[in-house]
Amino acid sequence: MRYISTRGSQTPLGFSDAVMTGLARDGGLLLPAEIPYVADRLPSWQSLSYTDLAFEIMRLFCDIPQDELQAIIHRSYHSFHHPDVTPVVSVNNIHILELFHGPTLAFKDVALQFLGNIFEYILDQRNRELNILAATSGDTGSAAICGVRGRDHIRIFVMHPRGRVSPTQERQMTSVLDENVFNIAVQGTFDDCQRIMKELFSDLSFKDSHFLGTVNSINWARVLAQVVYYFFAAFRVMRLTSCKRVRFAVPTGNFGDIFAGYVAQRMGLPIGQLILATNENDILTRFFNIGEYKQGSVHATISPSMDIQVASNFERYLYYRLGEDPIRLREEMAAFSTTGRLTVTPLPDGRVDDLISAGAVGTAQTLATIRTFHQQYGYLLDPHTAVGIHVAQQHLCRNEPMICLATAHPAKFSQAIENATGQDLAHHPLLDALADLPTRCAVLPATQGAIRSHIQRSLISQPE
Ligand SMILES: *Cc1c(COP(=O)(O)O)cnc(C)c1O
Question: Is the CB of residue 431 less than 8 Å from the CB of residue 419?
Fold first, then answer.
């Protein structure tokens, strides 16, 4: 499989190069040159275990030898605390796809455990090193750290704004003591952390001489890992309900998770509707309702991992929506970067997309959804999942069962659960145990100079 850029000016790349490159050289995002259509294979895939299914799907997109790929998949999902990896739990008329059984209890583990293993494999093949630099407002950092801790050829430097992430989030990161993990508490805001990232990456000689890279959500390997659970859940729910089609509701920030569902549908998985759910940061909801993609300002909510205004994976969707025409896509993206706005012409039926429906949910509704779901069914939703469930409830359909993606364990957001239910209900032994663990973290000023010399010093004191 070759990978092309949405903007059309990148020589096609193989899988390994696509994974190592991240962003294409022309500024676009990488996509497989064609999406394999697998409808005729679905019957034979229906009863496969998660890892066997992952192998069947991923091998279509990878140039990694089959036994190596199989070993990578097993290593990646061995760390999950459930035999089904991503189990489906039926609650009343909704099927909840629990994506939070990974080591950090967040859905990002599904992709980042795989990405860590893929990186290690490719770097080993090429006899190269990688120093990952990341900035986190809380949640992504621990999943990224957990994906690469203890791996050969890789070090990771994660900046978080000091005192501005929750105590649990901070401990999830700083209690990882592997020698290749460097936590940095920046004396500033998340914006400072992102600015420092940009400054260090734009210094190309520093970037190249220090083998700097990222793990951000535009990496194709992350999308690929997420495609698998759409198949897995659809098979389980179709068997359970004897229905021939399903719907998925997906709480979204960067359009990464839902884009994986879009790919699954294009591969031939019978998905009738994808329901996109956002919090008050509703740029994507507005797009799918009125066809206008217009940047607003970011609001802090109780579902912070979706507090995003420019969705980094949206360009991949837009590429298909504009008829796989890189020239048009380039024009639209250029217009967006100068005016902060782009529009598409509606389809003949007036909709923006006949597969994707969307809704936005405010804080009060999110808390109410958590409360009612707990009262009625005894099931605790984390605030991100609750956003998805709320919108899903407005799109129920008798012949197409609804599968809602549960993206975090409720214990990660225990304060919101307490606000919603009035009780301190959300716990997980892994998180409770964090309080007693030793931690390691450097505290540094919010300047790129301070971070740069910290990285240099750390690499010298750790030659291999
Ligand atoms: C990252 C994240 C999301 C959003 O995922 P995208 O791929 O950015 O759409 C939703 N919920 C949780 C808990 C997350 O960590």
Answer: no
